Amino acid sequence: MDEQKQKAIQKHYATLVKSMNSLWIMDHLAHLLSLEEMESIRKAHLTPQERTRELIAVLFRKTEELRPFGCFIKALEETDDNHKILAEAILKTYTHENGANVAEKVSRNSHLDAGETEHGFKM
């Protein structure tokens, strides 16, 4: 995942660790995660907070070609109303910190790929 997207998530890290249900999110990211990664997140970490930390760390290591940021945002939006609020906050941070570049990228790609989220991030 690129550094700007990581920073947007890191700004909300404490809230994500405290309130995100990583197992729900992981289920929505099954296409992006290997079986080994899913097992590591599920079994190696005893507390929900540890699982969330590990899931975020795994997503940060994913290449941009896999679109981990867009997939993560979509998973947040689809799992729970509280998660949806987190997704909106992360997107707001990302858009604010990257300004016109993000808006330009989203509008340029918005009609090109049917596999993107409603925010223009390709899946």
UniProtKB/TrEMBL annotation:
Signal peptide start and end residues: none
User: What keywords would UniProt list here?
Assistant: Immunity, Innate immunity, Isopeptide bond, Phosphoprotein, Ubl conjugation
Q: Which SUPFAM superfamilies match?
A: DEATH domain
Family matches, as InterPro entries: CARD (IPR001315), CARD_dom (IPR031964), DEATH-like_dom_sf (IPR011029)
Q: What's an example Gene Ontology biological process for this entry?
A: regulation of apoptotic process
One Pfam entry name: CARD_2
Domain CARD: from-to ranges: 1-80
Stated name of the protein: CARD domain-containing protein
Organism per entry: Plectus sambesii
